Amino acid sequence: MEVAEVEAEVEKKATATRSRLIVRLAALLVSYSTLVSVVCCLAGLIALLVLPLLAKNTYISENALLPGSANPVLSYQHVTQANNLILDIMNIADDKEAPDIEIPKLIAKYMEILGAETYHHKFSQPQNQFHPLYFFSTSPNSPPTLANLSYGTSTVGIIRAPRGDGKEAIVLVSPYNTQNAGGIDASASSIGLAFSVFSLLSRATWLAKDIIWVASDSRFGDHTSVSAWLNDYHNPNFIGDASSNRIFKRAGTMACGIVFKVVEKERREKYEDRDVVTMYAEASNGQMPNLDLLNVVHYLAVHRQGIRVRIGMFGGLVKSHLVRVLGEVMQQVGRFARSLNPDWRFEMPSSEYVEGTATLASSIYSQALGVPTGPHGAFRDYQVDAVTLELSPRFSLKNEHTRLAFLLKGGRLIEGTVRSVNNLLEKFHQSFFLYFLTAPNKFVSVGVYMIPFAFLVAPLPIIAASLFNLTSNRNPWRWLHTAKPLLITHTWSVVVTLLPFYISKISDLPSTHCMLTWAGGSLMALVILYIVFGSPYSKHVEWRLLKAVMIASVSIGLCLMSIINFATAQIGALFVVPMCLFALPIRVKTNNSLIRSMVMTCNLVMAVLGFPVTAVALMQGVIKGFGTVSILEFWDSMKFLWGWNSATYLYLVLVHLPCWLLFLHILFHPCR
């Protein structure tokens, strides 16, 4: 008993010692809050710039995938049959008056020859209208109106696996568009490529998962047809037409989705020597498929079929002089680090750093936008891993011999991917779901790319505590007076969020007029709130407490956004953290006039650049070029975001906009 009491007493003292150390450390950080903020911000920016150096080579985590373990079986016989389908489609497109009706029938006929179960799926063009009640979910399907009588027809074929139990399925999607006369060769080749693989799989004895081939009619966009089919697949409508529900055939739970289409590029630049496949992986709100799926495609394309793999890259950054200088600096830093310790392998050629930075920026931006980069995004809404492959041939598709060779390569790539997924006994789970890509075979994992964000956000609670300590000695409850401007600001941001719902109901209103109406309505709402609640500059509202409350609210917003879409929070932190840290009233008195002038200049610049409209235009200018960006296009940008239910729209108006308004309140505070 005495031993137990002694151990308890020792543990109690140790706990008290740790608590005192934590309190002292916190007090020390608060005391030197300015120095800590500067160090953390610089560390965050440096960590963001060195992310391409910290990228790892991709590897396959799931051993059961076994890519390339079996020799491809797809032969010229399969692609010759597919070529016959291509020629038939092109003849119908040239001769028939209604190719959008005849082509689905032709595809179904070819499917039935292979013994597949077939049916047609009709869908209408969705009405893209903002509705706040259905922001994070699909709004209920409304019946087509007189203005929406146009339908699309997708053709679906199902092969039952001879070694399966019907509980799992692999989905192949080949979008095509018969109304695009200039791209009929590519659309027909996409269908032919899918048919060659489908023909092989219809005779495969090793299949353990059902195969679903969706020849999706993409007249309303590639995503629309796939999304409509997936919605009906997972949400059968038993209330409507019972006969149509019986016609709609289903297979098992989807293990994977592979979307592929053929695209002829007018300019190939330095990729003329080989066929190219471009991978698109970003889904809605920063969701990504399991990295193993991309690794399988990359391995089979490069090491088995000799196809070059590409992913999104910002060409403007590749040509940027500033990025090239950074590349040279990083190359010298890597050499110096390796001279200190040969195990520090940070050395990277400057050209590789430039390409890695451009690719990383594209990956972060595509995820932050929250909009799918292809039809595969519809699969992620149902937690199905999927990828879109855009195959571009080296030579023209009009030449039959080169077309057959291209179909053989592309078909074997799809065949190998299906074989690997067919080997899985469970869903993708071994590899990463949270990552940024710096190259087709390099990635930055979640444990690495969180470091810059953590450095940027870390000073916020420290600064807030420091500001509170400066004013708490007089009256610890004075911070409650700042609740009024905080309430006004966030109430106004909610009004601004909902205004587009009513503006969008006004028919035939140009985008510029919608933008001006939104701005005028928002300004009027803010004035009304000031009249109702009073001025935010009362004698009880101190600017230090207002800044502390602003920092606290922004910290909460950024942390919540990092859970929903980390890329949005990362980019947002680059704008709002400087506003939070350097916010200072214009009328505040300081001993050093030079420092005061510099701070005021920075504040005025941040007041302009931190405005959401300017911030969005700045991001688009860096990516697309400033000559093509207009502030009046902000309405179209926001309409694009809410049309895809992107959480970035909510971040801009519920986190970024209130932060900017509170920043202005501090900037013009009377400092009584």
TrEMBL record:
Pfam families: Gaa1 (PF04114)
Top-level taxon of origin: Eukaryota
Keyword Zinc (UniProt): no
Entry's transmembrane regions: 21-54, 446-470, 482-503, 515-533, 545-564, 570-588, 600-623, 648-668
GO cellular component, one term: GPI-anchor transamidase complex
Keywords: Membrane, Transmembrane, Transmembrane helix
Biological process annotations from GO: attachment of GPI anchor to protein
InterPro entries linked: Gaa1
Full protein name: GPI transamidase component family protein / Gaa1-like family protein
Protein species of origin: Rhynchospora pubera
